Amino acid sequence: MTERSLAAPPRLLGTRLTRRIRSLGGLLASLALTFLGLLCITFLIGRIIPIDPALAIVGDRAPAHVYERVREELGLNLPLWQQFFIYVGQVLRGDFGTSVLTGRPVLEDIARVFPATLELATLGILIGVIFGVPMGVVAAVHRDRWPDQLVRVIGLVGYSVPIFWLGLVGLLVFYAKLGWVGGSGRLDFFHEGIAPSVTGMILIDAAIAGEWDVFRNALHHIVLPAALLGYFSLAYISRMTRSLMLEQLNQEYITTARVKGVSEARVIWVHALRNILVPLITVVALSYASLLEGSVLTETVFAWPGLGRYLTNALLAADMAAVLGATIVVGLVFVGVNLLSDLLYRLVDPRAR
Amino acid sequence: MSETLSTAGWRAWLLSERPQSALQARLGQAWLSWNAFQRNRLAMLGLALILLLVLVAAFAPWISPYEPNVQNLRLRLQPPGAAHWLGTDELGRDILSRIIHGARITLYIVTLVVVIAAPIGLLVGTVAGYFGGWVDAVLMRLTDIFLAFPRLILALAFVAALGPGIDNAVIAIAITAWPAYARVARAETLTLRRSDFIAAVRIQGAGAFRIIGRHIMPLCLPSVIVRVTLDMAGIILTAAGLGFLGLGAQPPAPEWGAMISTGRAYLLDQWWVATIPGLAICLVSLGFNLLGDGLRDLLDPKRRGG
């Protein structure tokens, strides 16, 4: 929010439109700067690894001149800042290098695995919002009484549980003991490859193809990991909703509404809730971004073939091009979601215009 | 009788309206805060959990029933029972003993991360807030960049570069931890910067770094400490996540995350191997969260639980 006030100094001469463009320009510039910083970090990480990329290609028995030639071809003999410029140029052209593990361009790999993450994160955030917002509202209304304490404890447990552990316990109870949900992966083996891949998101693909057996099976598999992610975003969303609601419930317009004889339910769920929607968008966007990028452990536990598992697999195989490529995409997702929520904020909140 | 009299005397001394010394005033304040804190039952529970962790870590060799790394393959995967209260793992090691010794690793990681990250965050935040202008712009842009990565992924990338191991995990987590503290310290500094007493010190001729070090930093400390306490759970979970992925503490170290990871193979038939270390992680991070929540309420009654 400081960003906005810095970027848009009150100017009498500028018309509203130019002011908006100016503030948008400032926002974009700061995002571009952040992204450049991200690249700087990934570049440095790529350079401090103890593995010599040239040595990895030629092997340690190659003669010195071969080694030197490979170093030159990789641009490793250039000064560091020059290497950085080349690196930025490559990334801007979408060239993240080739994965050693899959033998394909990293960008292609990421495009292939990302829909799985998108599907999981979207369902997760839906669960988080559907349960988290009402819980936060109820907690605020019953401040310091048992519903509030209950929501508080549920949230604190969410902040305290290792997600990979909860995933394992969930698999143990709901899959192995009760048989209510499907196991790891996105589908059972015999349902694979039936619905043609259109979006890469199996639920949608199956619905398009009308393969309802596949749809049901996919739902069986996704429900547990999505519920877990939903729980973790719920912890954050309910807590933020509660404090935003508390602020509103003390405002005078709420008293006015009550005095006017508006029903209590309407005061809470319509009048107050409408006024927290704008900051709530930012909260939800932030937790959506963290689900899109942060489900590394969940995907590992559930063998979910998304971005997180791609990253850990690459990591364990020391496949640095893939690791850094995935890291950049993750940073980009964050920057992008931030931009999106900021734009939405401007659209919805008349004061921010 | 004299006992109660003297405690009453102490209380009167602590709550005196006209403290005779700075020490008395400070102790009185601490007493009042402690009284307020004590009334928060959840926060006291958190404090008790943390004290338990510290005690268990301190006395690990004396209270653990077995050696944490001694294998006994004839007793592998024993369910919880009289001889092994929490069962044994796949190499016949006593899980309770490993949990107890694992407390040391957890405490080691948390302490080291805080010792590295908190001063950096405090310094960056106060300097940025005090000087403002381009110094502020540059430093805050830097923290934004670090905050743009989810914590675990940045830590993963650093561990990938530095190599797995507990000390590299500590460095990686510390690198991801300081920006949040810098933000808090900066916000606090911005409100202090324009206050009269800072102006007075400046007029007396104190240099910028003296003002920051002697006058601003001490006042930023409470908020930073609260932020750090609330962050402890995150540090523990990140460390456990790294351990789970095999990038943190290396075997045979009884690190809780790594223990869950090995127990994963036996999840269906020997549930205790994976679930019990997870419970330990939950309890400790819940302890830090409850404590941090209570401290925050204490610091700012306005924001109660918000």
UniProtKB/TrEMBL annotation, chain A:
Pfam families: BPD_transp_1, BPD_transp_1_N. It is a multi-pass membrane protein. Keywords: Cell membrane, Membrane, Transmembrane, Transmembrane helix, Transport. The chain crosses the membrane at residues 21-45, 120-141, 153-176, 218-237, 276-297, 317-345. It is found in: Cell membrane. It comes from the Bacteria. Residues 114-345 form the ABC transmembrane type-1 domain. Belongs to the binding-protein-dependent transport system permease family. This is ABC transporter permease. The lineage of its organism: Bacteria, Pseudomonadati, Pseudomonadota, Alphaproteobacteria, Rhodospirillales.
From TrEMBL, chain B:
It holds the Pfam family BPD_transp_1. InterPro entries: ABC_transport_permease (IPR053385), BP-dependent_transpt_permease (IPR050366), MetI-like (IPR000515), MetI-like_sf (IPR035906), OppC_N (IPR025966). It is found in: Cell membrane. It comes from the Bacteria. Residues 103-292 form the ABC transmembrane type-1 domain. Keywords: Cell membrane, Membrane, Peptide transport, Protein transport, Transmembrane, Transmembrane helix, Transport. It is a multi-pass membrane protein. Gene3D superfamilies: MetI-like. The chain crosses the membrane at residues 42-63, 105-133, 224-250, 270-292. Belongs to the binding-protein-dependent transport system permease family. OppBC subfamily. NCBIfam families: Opp2C. This is ABC transporter permease. It comes from Aquibaculum arenosum.
